[in-house]
Amino acid sequence: MSVLSNIVISARVRRSPYFAATQRYGCKAYSVYNHMYMPLYYQSPEADYWNLVNGVTLWDVAVERQVEIVGPDAARFVQLLSPRDLSSCAVGQCKYLMMTDEKGGILNDPLLLKLAEDRYWLSLADSDVLFWAKGVAYFGNYDVEVFEPDVSPLQLQGPLAAMVGEALFGSALNDLKYFRFGEFELAGMPLIVSRTGWSGERGYEIYLQNSDDGDRLWETIMEAGSPHGIAPATPSAIRRIEGGLLSYGADMNLDNNPYEMNLGRLVDLEQEADFIGKAALKRIKEEGIRQRLVGLTVEGGPAVVPSLERAAITLDDRPAGRITSAVYSPSLEQTIALALVPVEHVTEGSVLTVQTDAVPLEATVSPLPFISKKTV
Amino acid sequence: MSVLSNIVISARVRRSPYFAATQRYGCKAYSVYNHMYMPLYYQSPEADYWNLVNGVTLWDVAVERQVEIVGPDAARFVQLLSPRDLSSCAVGQCKYLMMTDEKGGILNDPLLLKLAEDRYWLSLADSDVLFWAKGVAYFGNYDVEVFEPDVSPLQLQGPLAAMVGEALFGSALNDLKYFRFGEFELAGMPLIVSRTGWSGERGYEIYLQNSDDGDRLWETIMEAGSPHGIAPATPSAIRRIEGGLLSYGADMNLDNNPYEMNLGRLVDLEQEADFIGKAALKRIKEEGIRQRLVGLTVEGGPAVVPSLERAAITLDDRPAGRITSAVYSPSLEQTIALALVPVEHVTEGSVLTVQTDAVPLEATVSPLPFISKKTV
User: Which of A118, A287, B18, B136 has the smallest count of CB within 10 Å of its CB?
Assistant: First the structure.
């Protein structure tokens, strides 16, 4: 995160059902994600971060659009779209997935929710998976419907999220295991609540199913959270990089494969079922990858972060990859980054050089995550 | 266009090869389009507009990402993706297309460039057509490659564009007919130049094929345009609404079909070839549409425009559609809008009411375009 510019709110970009609330609560900056405005920060990225790691925060993540896949062949079709073996996935379970194309390139890294034996949601990162899934289904011989339902998630994240969750949904919410979801009701609003999130903290995602109720849901949660000091916040670039969580578009895209992202565990080549990319990923695994995502600690404080955007890395004046994400961690009091680096240079402790427009900076390969998850 | 907010430049969103130039030339606001930063204005939307309609302007439209389709079955595959009969499309010709899904819903409205008998570019509006085309090709029996090439367009638009074009490319450019393109070279850079654009003015699109040359191409054009008072500008919401040009995401999306957009001329149901959506569009044509895009003049000056964003329309207190785009036209000294209105209310001169958060506003159905094209 670096340069601040202006964005003009226009009718082309969709507003979230919580957009008015985010304005009322003082959201200061937005980006665009899945063709919708995505709140970026309220007080400041740093102040929002401290609210997240010390208390409890509410995020408008309606940009996590859902693709619903429903019908007799839904399970088979969802498996086709994902390298991960889903044969043991139970109703009520969430799975983090890579979606790959025929070359093993990453199309998205959604969260899958299995709503019923014949009904699934893909909760998306920033790409039009609806187009991909509809396209594949066009000539595919699968009895499925593929569409975007009226579903708009919020995230309730932070160490005090469990207390706010209990205040809202009762003690039943405490029984929800990590990466499981349930159906709940709040003031007449039917909701799906999953114990998941993009923070590394304890937290929940709350899926509203009627966009007319956006303001009411937001305020109901804020009221229940008020005794616990709840604050509005957003997906935190700081906390997610500390936690080694990936951002589609920054750390990976169609040119990358899951092995490069250290996510070979999400590719089950031995399963019986076919999936798109299987042959390519098998070949990539056999031949070995050339680059890999690593953590870097970088010299210099917050002021150097803007200069790190997609910066080139060198070793002995030869190309050695590039930065994919960078941020200053107030907890570690250290600039940290994710980078794609040739495999021969990924040894922990290796010292590389980041080429910025100003001075070159020293960077050290570090274990990921920088700070462990506290979700469980 | 209304509320100004901040956008934080982050590594997730791609920068155009011209991004540094747009910053240097004082671009004040960006949006995000096809996962890239899109410049929104320099001096002000109004000042940029006058530069466009009175002189010549250069726009960074690298956000118009290309999908390249190449291979023995390219022509057949491109036809499959479009309701428009492309059988007579010649090499060197551009076609404005609707792309539809199996229900006749609009996926994108790209410009097609036929580069060779077996090679095409789709120059895109804001949606991941790459995912759609790759998805359809997965089970489709077509011998094609589908990918995003390294191509980044600029637009040179305005009544003086021809003079700058001639200064750059010589008089050969004047022979280029409307919706035709040719191969040109500039300071060693191979370029495709088409006589097209999104302004209603005379103009060209210039397709750079090496993103390392962004800055050099920008400056070369600026230098040639300098004697003609060239100014940096952006796709003008004012000029495109005046001209009745559509914006994907604002005026139409997957829920709309080409007939609702008054673009039945782009749907050739009688052609022999099959295309995706043919059966659905045939049915829609037979049954008739329920709503249609119309022009509206709206009472009140520039100050009312923000309140018109996606505003509901009524007639005798009953729902009568909604605004899709609105702007104040300095040329007409009139607030103008595009709106989706039930077909029974689209008679020219009909007076409708726009419901805003403040007072209701009177709106009159008007012929489109508000101002004719000057392209030819």
Answer: A287
